[in-house]
Amino acid sequence: xxxxxxxxxxxxxxxxxxxxxxxxxxxxxxxREQGSGNPGATNVMRIGGKKAAAITLLxxxxxGFVPVLIAKTMGGEAxxxxxxxxxxxxxxxxxxxxxxxxxxxxxTTLGVALGVNWMLGLxxxxxxxxxxxxxxxxxxxxxxxxxxxxAYVWFFVGxxxxxxxxxxxxxxxxxxxxxxxERLLAGDxx
Length: 190
What we know:
The protein has one domain (2-186). It contains ten helices and no strands. The chain has helices spanning 6-14, 18-25, 41-48, 50-73, 78-93, 106-116, 118-135, 138-156, 160-176, 178-186. The longest helix has 24 residues, at 50-73.
């Protein structure tokens, strides 16, 4: 039963905002107050460049990957793994350490997917990359990858608990991108 402590621990790890920490360490403005106002890698790139964005992206991926990997290493059952994944994701969206104002969760979802199954994670990443190469729109790439991820989970993992969690994560990702979706439909998305 001790492994269930991983759920709140995953939330706390997810709550560490890579964007805010990177911006503070690099002497940049708070990403919640600049650009899109979103503390994520895309906004950090707008305000601080590629290096700051790459560090932020790595941090956001790791905070999804590490808790899931720990849960897998401890031999946690599927529902525990699913709850750890969702807790890390929620921590990124609603970080307790930063006033519950977090990012949209794309990179953390990638980290979670990589932790669950490396082929799953690489397929999600490849989907994002192919759509981005064609469209040059990061949000569209994230949305397409989010919609397809539950099917990828079923294909690579075949576990009901993880499929349910990734359906929920995908739904939340779509909801968090509602403004992007409106701009995409209007033809105004950057």
